[in-house]
Design brief:
156 residues, mainly alpha
């Protein structure tokens, strides 16, 4: 089977697996970026890595999406490149998710020191929890995208 039969272009990108995962990757990846950026860093923590991963993956997923939409993904290298990128993104997001969860545990300890509703760490803690949930969700979508991309690559 030729690679142009395997790699969708145009609006077909929005209707085929694994390319359908581009949309939740944008949404949840953007939420991770936004939620982490809205927190207040009070002590040295690894959220810089989380921001790097979320921005890097958001930008490269956007570029890849536009390449697919425009139909410039029809050479034989694209199935392997697509699978490789999404596997790398899944690994990067998994590392970022674990670090974000670790940071959230640290912020939780600050909320326990002063559990009053006026404690500014209560709001930050809730944002951190949301960022953890979104980070693991986007990790799942990148992993699924990678798995289906590898299957497509094997067919080519």
């Amino acid at each position: 089977m030729a690679s142009n039969d395997l790699m969708p272009s145009g609006c077909r990108v929005l209707a085929t697996l694994p390319d359908l995962f581009f949309i939740p990757e944008f949404v949840f990846g953007g939420l991770v970026w936004t939620l982490v950026a809205s927190t207040y860093v009070t002590f040295p923590n690894p959220e810089g890595w989380v921001m790097f991963v979320s921005v890097f993956c958001f930008l490269f997923t956007t570029i890849l999406f536009f390449i697919f939409i425009s139909g410039n993904n029809q050479s034989s290298m694209w199935p392997g490149l697509d699978a490789s990128y999404h596997a790398l993104a899944a690994i990067l997001y998994l590392s970022a998710s674990v670090l974000q969860a670790s940071t959230t545990i640290g912020v939780r300890e600050l909320t326990l020191l002063d559990p009053t509703s006026g404690n500014p760490f209560n709001k930050i803690y809730k944002l951190e929890i949301a960022a953890v949930v979104m980070a693991f969700t986007v990790t799942l979508f990148y992993t699924l995208h990678a798995i289906f991309s590898v299957k497509r690559w094997k067919k080519s």
